[in-house]
């Protein structure tokens, strides 16, 4: 059985407006799955791992913010190791290793493969992960890396220089992201891209962790996590390790980090309500809004629309999006939560209208607001509300009014949709007092 | 004093999504006015007429659909002559002429100038209108036209061939829209564009009207209007008239009929929440949505977004928009009404959420629905509702529930905003029974 740690991070700025702080690119559902349903990179990778190894024990190392979305998309099929704060890959892998050992009971002799959650690859990539795990199990090296056969002299990746051109070779050196000329020289020497994939025995990793961080076990490391410095696994471990080998991988591998590469992986040019005239060329459009997009005479462009905003970009420019999105600095207008999702529909000076959708069996926290009144109109579904301790069954058409200070929650029996109108001059996400859940 | 009839028509498809069946292009507020407020073509033309002639008596000939918007933008400052149905320019001008005579008491000797509502011109154009009226008053001809000095051999306009090249000349012939080669020949002969502007004495026009339509007075013509055939003023009158002269106009004149010409008239490249990176060139963006638009590397493009949809078009293609918009065939998501406006916020299978904004002193009709319940949450303002004959004062935060069959209305004292949630499986605009207004 293979243990896999999938690293799930990402600020989500580079695929704006489909990604945001809460919804990173790996959660966007835009790939056509085997049953023709749209799947996200997360669910696609999960499905692919299960295809090559139905028994694989999968743990996702991630932040608090992403944990809800991962649960929504994969439920109980994976373990989630939540970092209290973001601290780069070395602390994250240490925490996940301790989690596997202390929480899941994985022995120090077992092999663990670490892999990013978002490669866009064919199943052969996961077959290569199995081979990687096999090499680690044989134990000729402490660390086994996957090296990706480069297709062009990229400046975006680190390079691994192998000693030989064999399918498996020991590593002679690591190189930081080079300029294009240097990258060309590396490739001439047989260098490989470092795709951030490596396998080791759990005991090896725990030893490295204890060398650099003072902790006893998983709960202890969790407690001191925030005090650790940010440091990458490559820098802290890989570049210092002498007994290290690399497995060449030459299958298709796309790093969907920006719109111009992301659109290459789309099965059709459009998703959602989109019309392209016959003068459009090499243009992809993703529309999550309810209103139509009409594109005429667009060439080499990407258009993406969500409740957060609209991007219209030439593909050659789309990799430079980050500073522009940072400048927008806006509140997310849509977010998936552990209990469902919310969408901001309308913002006025003294009011805000929000659509709330709760999953069956889920609830909001029991809470109140100091500076705003709220009105719920149940659109669909059934459940119950608790208002200042009083329980009431609700269904489509029912209206609940909650003056400021009033404690309230809603619990969904079926999928439940409601429109919330917030009324007040100081509407803010900070204005929320939580109380212990009521039954 | 000058009498002016402004013809306000247009299907509104060519400037989609900012224009729609209800909101034609002349109502879109996107020109910077003298006080830096955004103005529409309608309010701009109105302001310009008032500048050259503060006393001008202005009548707008238009359809039922547009009358509310005109009232919202200009209030009581203009007379509105509403056509019961659309019947092309000859019947429309006959109806307006009868309206001037019978409703406003304009004498048969007074001069009337007819002009489209949407030319994008400088004030000198309106000075030329005054000169046109003066020529008509002198009475050397029955009909005096404005001929626009052509700037290129356009295939979009009809041509007027004058006898001489003098500033004022008698007309020798009219020519239908030609092909480019023929247009070139016309221009070589000194031909002018026919911009649909003409002046006459009211009695002359009434005589032409009575010759072709059997009617007594304005109310009578209004009653038989729907039975008239569609025929243009050029065809019915101008091309048959012998005593006709033309005034040359060589000032700036833009026909903002499609996005590529419309954007030429914009004072700045962007309106609304828009970011352009410094690789954008010759690109204009109009954003009426509340979410940001980010454009990167766009060249010679126009981007326009409203609650009806999003257009992303190369300027060279934007004139071909009409069939694509017709294919979209959607319900308007935003509409200005005599009482205010509505915006569709959310559409679900069994519910619909709408924002309703009422102007002070205005009300909805008293009505009921057979197949849906409704809930109103007042967001802002004050007024009263009438529910099955019972009156109730309401203000921000109040909630009104209206089961199917219940008669209801809301009357705004101040500007009043409310969120309406419609609940039912058969939500349709047709499901509405109106009753006599209650006090």
Describe the structure.
Two copies of one chain form a homodimer. In chain A, 22% of the residues lie in helices and 35% in strands. The first copy, chain A, has a six-stranded antiparallel β-sheet. By secondary structure, chain A is α+β, with helices and mostly antiparallel strands. At the A-B interface, strand 17, strand 18, strand 19, helix 10 and strand 21 of A face strand 17, strand 18, strand 19, helix 10 and strand 21 of B. Strand 17 (293-296) of chain A pairs parallel with strand 19 of chain B.
Number of strands of chain A: 30
Low-confidence stretches of chain A: none
In what range is the share of β-strand residues of chain A?
A: 35-45%
Estimated radius of gyration of chain A: 24 Å
Largest sheet of chain A: 6 strands, antiparallel
Helix content of chain A: 10-25%
How confident is the prediction overall: mean pLDDT of chain A? 91
Number of helices of chain A: 10
Q: What are the SSEs and their pairings?
A:
2 copies of one chain form a homodimer.
Chain A: E1 3-7, E2 31-32, E3 38-39, H1 41-52, E4 57-63, H2 64-74, E5 79-83, H3 89-102, E6 111-116, E7 119-121, H4 123-138, E8 143-148, E9 159-162, E10 168-175, H5 180-188, E11 192-201, H6 202-212, H7 218-224, H8 233-236, E12 244-249, E13 253-255, H9 259-262, E14 270-271, E15 274-276, E16 284-287, E17 293-296, E18 301-306, E19 309-314, H10 322-328, E20 334-337, E21 340-347, E22 351-358, E23 366-368, E24 373-380, E25 382-387, E26 390-395, E27 399-402, E28 408-412, E29 416-423, E30 433-435
Parallel strand pairs in A: 1-4, 1-6, 4-5, 8-12, 14-16, 15-17, 16-18
Antiparallel strand pairs in A: 2-3, 6-11, 7-13, 8-11, 9-10, 9-11, 10-12, 18-19, 20-21, 21-22, 22-29, 23-30, 24-27, 24-29, 25-26, 25-28
């Amino acid at each position: 059985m293979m243990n896999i740690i999938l690293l799930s991070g990402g600020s989500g700025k580079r695929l704006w407006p489909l990604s945001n702080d809460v919804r990173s690119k790996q959660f966007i559902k835009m790939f056509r799955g085997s049953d023709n349903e749209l799947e996200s990179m997360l669910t696609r990778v999960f499905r692919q791992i299960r295809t090559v190894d139905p028994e694989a024990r999968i743990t996702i190392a991630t932040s608090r913010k992403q944990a809800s979305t991962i649960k929504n998309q994969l439920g109980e099929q994976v373990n989630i190791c939540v970092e209290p704060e973001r601290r780069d890959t070395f602390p994250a892998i240490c925490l996940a290793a301790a989690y596997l050992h202390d929480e899941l009971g994985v022995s120090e002799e077992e092999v663990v493969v670490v892999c990013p959650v978002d490669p866009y690859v064919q199943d052969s990539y996961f077959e290569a992960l199995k081979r990687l795990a096999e090499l680690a199990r044989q134990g000729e090296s402490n660390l086994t890396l996957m090296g990706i056969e480069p297709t062009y002299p990229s400046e975006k990746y680190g390079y691994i220089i192998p000693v030989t051109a064999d399918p498996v070779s020991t590593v002679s050196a690591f190189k930081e992201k080079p300029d294009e000329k240097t990258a060309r020289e590396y490739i001439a020497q047989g260098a490989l891209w470092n795709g951030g994939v490596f396998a080791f025995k759990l005991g090896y990793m725990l030893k490295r962790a204890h060398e650099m961080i003072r902790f006893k076990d998983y709960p202890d490391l969790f407690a001191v996590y925030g005090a650790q410095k940010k440091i990458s696994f490559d820098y802290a471990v890989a570049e210092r390790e002498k007994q290290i080998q690399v497995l060449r991988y030459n299958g298709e591998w796309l790093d969907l980090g920006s719109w111009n590469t992301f659109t290459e992986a789309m099965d059709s040019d459009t998703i959602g309500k989109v019309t392209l005239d016959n003068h459009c060329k090499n243009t992809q459009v993703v529309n999550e809004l309810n209103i139509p997009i009409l594109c005429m005479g667009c060439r080499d462009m990407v258009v993406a629309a969500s409740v957060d905003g609209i991007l219209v970009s030439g593909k050659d420019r789309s990799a430079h999006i980050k500073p522009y999105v940072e400048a927008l600095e806006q509140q997310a207008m849509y977010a998936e939560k552990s209990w469902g999702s919310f969408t901001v529909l309308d913002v006025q000076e003294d009011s805000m209208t929000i659509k709330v959708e709760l999953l069956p069996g889920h609830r909001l926290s029991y809470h109140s607001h100091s500076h705003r009144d709220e009105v719920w109109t149940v659109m669909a579904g059934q459940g119950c509300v608790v208002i200042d301790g009083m329980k009431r069954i609700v269904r489509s058409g029912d209206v609940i009014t909650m003056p400021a200070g009033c404690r309230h929650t809603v619990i969904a029996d079926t999928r439940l949709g409601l429109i919330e109108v917030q009324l007040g001059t100081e509407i803010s996400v900070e204005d929320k007092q939580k109380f212990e859940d009521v039954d």
